[in-house]
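Appendix B.2, paired examples.
Example (i):
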Amino acid sequence: MKTSIKNILTILAVLTFSISFAQNIEGVVTTDQNIPLEAANVVIKGTTFSTITNSEGRFSIESQGKLPLTLLVQYIGYNTAELEITSIPASPILITLREENKLVEVVVSSRRRIEKVQDVPIAVSVVTGKQAEAAGAFNVNRIKELVPSVQLYSSNPRNTGINIRSLGSPFGLTNDGIDPGVGFYVDGVYYARPAATTLDFIDVEQIEVLRGPQGSLFGKNTTSGAFNITSRKPSFTTGADFELSYGNYAFLQAKASVTGALGKKVAGRLSFSGTQRDGLIDNVATGRPTNTLNNQGFRGQLLWTPTENTNVTFAGDLTTQRPDGYAQVVAGVAPTKRAAYRQFDAIIADLNYQLPSLNAFDRKIDHDTPWRSGQDLGGVSLNVDTKIGGGTLTSTTAWRFWNWDPSNDRDFTGLQVLAKSQNPTRQTQITQEVRYAGQLTSKISGVAGVFFIDQTSQTDGTEESGDAQWRFSQSSTSSLWATPGLFEGYGIHTDARIRASSAAVFGQLDWAITNRFHILPGLRYNFDKKDASYSRKTYGGLQTTDPALLALKKSVYSDQAFDSDTDNTDFSGNLTLTYKASDKINAYATFAKSYKPVGVNVAGLPTNSSGQPMTELAVVKPEKVYHYEVGVKTSPFKNSILNLTLFNTDIKDFQTNVQAAELGVNRGYLANADKVRVRGAELDASFVINSHVTINGAATYTDGKYVKFTNAPLPLEETGLTVDGVQVAYKDVSGTDLPGASRWAGSLGGELSDHAKFFGNAGKIFFAADGYARSEFSSSPSASKYLVVQGYAIFNARLGFRASQGLSIQIWGRNLFNKDYYEQLLPASGNTGQYAGVLGDQRTYGVTFKYSL
């Protein structure tokens, strides 16, 4: 590694610096109290050229004949300053250093302009790229440990739901026919598929998590919040970062980023991230561990500045994932209301089968169908920012794709119940957003824009029975079920297609009635259209003309086809009042009427008594969201933040995912719950105690209920319920908790640090620890006592040395107390009683090296 770093340094030095006429750059370094700093280190970034200040804080350093360049000014106990020099100054430059461990006032771009987060009348949490890297939060699933209002549930990348305040995506299997309620943006580009949240971040500058509806600020309507992620931008000053992590289970993660000028008006940036790890679950059938990590991602950017007022950025990215995973482990067996011979334990006894372990946290499986979760995600974008008048006109054009290549063992056993379960999908999207943001008059500022997205999704799926299917599907005592080869190789080929288009006009004003009191109205007009087709055809199994045997086969899989198309328009909006009582207190109140577009089912429908698809379920009504929120952002004393938010969200026609008992409905189907309500409170705090100690924390209380849901699916233990001899299909679950909604969740972290030097570099030695906890939550659309995930808490820590330039190192550990916990529970196909768990990672630990030039 040392040789590689030396070679890289040599190459960069040769490429970047040449011997030529050198002029001196002179300056003075002081504190923010105007006190000269003696012996401050002044470095030309990307080189080994440096000097120190004298007793008057003065310095002089040769430019080495190359401009532009960046000066790094370092002094123990103060934040490092960076200053770009484009020409030799005629007089000494003044550089002011800010004392470390003063609370940094984070700026955000959530309202399409740069402003302090404490001044924004929105509940927003900010995680910088450096904070995410330090905490090992290399994807959204890790970010939820820092922002407890975020929930992410993923049984595999396709079946991923991201929620904020327990709202956003239906809990359970993903259906492409509806839109997510949480927007996911990277550098202004909307990512339509939630699978993007399972991949590694690449060279991230900042992550903003906005809570609550944001339809008047963002191109795509977002009913429960948005992730606004910005990447590090190309720089005209040469720089590079290299990072390498190694841990147990052969964890290996490498990151690299290089930036610099490619011409007088063109700069570039190239970034890479790769993660590998051995499996955390042992497959005793194959003799090797599964649930590995295998991610690689690239991102390239070109910045062109044709004029002082215009920036043009072209970006391209490609991320691949090739793990052996995401396998789930049988977590238990629920007795159902079916006959004794249809209970899971009786079924496997007849087949002379035993589970490899009755304890899920033995982390043993014997799955006989390979687990495969290959996905490719990428695209290109063109962003143009140009200053016009008192604002900025922005155009963002993008094309993206997502390819999904899976294989699953959805019976969760070593039996050949489902020999194949795979639904490869290809999704493409084109988006265009144009908006103007800026000062319109002396009292009014705002943002206005138009947005368009057109996306297509095609799934060509296969589900095929094995030699044990007959026993799991058996619904009578007839000996015909055991007919040799009746179901073996019997399956369905699925062709599901959807095209979804959406167009919107949106805007929000900020009217300063006084310097302290502002009114912020926002409006949005949306048009959405969806066309879908679904077709499945049966194949294989025993070839017979016997009507009785054909009827048995049809009870497992049958042909089905339907088309649906729908469109809808909607006016929505919001009104916010904000009052800045003082420089330390900013209060606001918001009402928002929001909207999630109409949905369509593209994964099969339940059948009626005649065996025909219930096409009345093909279209899912749009959600109507009514949101109320009040908040106060405060700085109660020096270097502190304490923010409180209270919210209430009512949703009519809540879109929820229902898992059918029929095997043929292999992805679940969508339905509407009449009314849902979520209310709660959030607390965010950050304190700098002194120059050595910082503390930060967040807590959320959430009460999510089905106010009215009379046609909910039966919970697992009530499968097969009959009343007066008639089998019951639905249940009234009004008043019960929403799935995925923990009543309490929180995070708490702190850092102890001191000044130090490491290999001649000035920096800080530190010890940091953080914890994340949440209370129990339901893991089923209809509350089931067997599918309740118990509350848990995990703790992480890290010890190391960090510097803004040169070598940094840290030793880290996650889930230090090796807590066994589930992230999700889900029933097996056919609801025979067994259910599986998505396991949280056990204890992991390792070391990270970072070298910055």
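Example (ii):
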Amino acid sequence: MPDYQAPLRDLRFVMDEMLDYPAHYSRLPGGEEATPDVVSAILEEGARFAREVLLPLNQSGDREGCLLEGGEVKAPKGFKQAYAQYVEGGWPGLAAEAEHGGQGLPASLGMALNEMICATNLAWGMYPGLSHGAADALRHHGTEAQKATYLTKLVEGTWTGTMCLTEPHCGTDLGLIKTRAVPTDDGAFDITGTKIFISAGEHDLAENIVHLVLAKLPDAPAGSKGISLFVVPKFLPDGDGNPGERNGVTCGSLEHKMGIHGNATCVMNFDAARGYLVGAPHKGLACMFTMMNAARIGVGIQGLGLTEASFQNALAYARDRLQMRALAGAKAPEKPADPIIVHPDVRRMLLTQKAFAEGGRMLVLYTAQMIDLVEHGVDAAEKERAETLLGLLTPVVKAFLTEVGFEATNEGVQVFGGHGFIQEWGMEQLVRDARITRLYEGTTGIQALDLLGRKVLMSQGETLKVFTKEIHQFCRAEEGNAELAEFVRPLAKLNQEWGELTMGVGMKAMADREEVGAASVDYLMYSGYVTLAYLFARAARQARAALAEGGDEAAFYRAKLDTARFYYQRLLPRTRAHKLSIEAGAESLMAISAEDFGLGFEN
């Protein structure tokens, strides 16, 4: 069975040393409760729960899957008990506001915990994970009565939440949805339609499930401007707020999937199910985006967690597995062969995983600070800046970390060789589970269009400039530091090039809008690599400063520098290929007609 140790030392490095989380928390209203001792205790207990409770259920849950009987879904053995422990420990309300029954701690702390959950049992983590997004949507857009009825239950964890968007005939293009909401005489709505791919849509972990459903009113305008949002509970709350009469919502079937077998991915049928409008009529998509953006960050963390899990297990195997001798001569002459970690190509695969895990962690925790400031910041200018950066980085977190996460889990299998292809080692499960992260909550292509089209070009580059200015200021401040030159000089050049590439795409797009779609995925990946380069440069600066001070952790800081150096020399050059693809434009993509694509195999 795979093992896992939460990377607490690296978390402390990023949070306490590099990003100065103690000072960050002290400036947030209520953040004074998140003292270093409290944060450390929470992370350590979260690490214990993830390793001792969730990890042992990961492989068994994958093999067993979920069972649908008589419209009721049973999660794999042990999942319900683990969820009960999770609720008893107060984890669902960790970062929720005290007025709704939460502990009022910063959202960023919950995101650090989420990495551990995703690394040990992604399928299980999706049950409580979606509830956070549902709670956010109701907190921002629900009525006071809806908050009292549903939000408090979601925060305490006795009820879970879902988001119901996709339908059999439409995925990303939600303007095509057919689910209808018909007003009733008492101010509620009858919801009728079918939703597919609904994670945690039906299960036995909690006493009630709160579905947030997109549907159209009878007078809805065509397209996405006619979508409304409704809260539709599995059981209608009674007068005391407890689950009462069964609503007209059922699980029609379970999807047969490539991975995440322990999570119930459902086809949900709404048959005149009683629902209640959330927000204004026809404004449901804007309300749902609150939940979707939270989910997108969450999916990026899934990519990070799987990367870390893959790296740890590949590293342990590479240290133990004996095969061949090192090219430069035996490294373990007392053994019949050397451990494979001595071979350069194995080190390449391990370091790729290590760099993406550590870089991804920095990106998530940097972005998490922006979320804290947007939610609880008191300085208006700082809050506005954080909101701009959060909008820019959300598609990068979601798409870049899941793309490299899938790469990392594949490299993990490769380190194991043939054993990686065998179920008992658990590595192939990581690959299967990682594959969905590039798809749900918006594919990589959709995230790329959001980044380049909506966030960057629609703001005429102003959104991007907020971030590139920060990178520029960092490079200017360190340009005289000879010890950091290997990081700062290439970063400064890439930062300038980022703006030039953006301007080039923008100019082409003025003549042909297809240029945006042609460049978008390469642009997102380029953006991700440069973003991680900035964060690794900051990490290198911190590591250099720590080494200069001395102490007994020199090996940790030297390893941080070595990882940053590997990233710059072996991974960052990928930006060259992305740049060339961006500059190639749309012509070669669009030259072949749709009709001619099949030439060569059609009769």
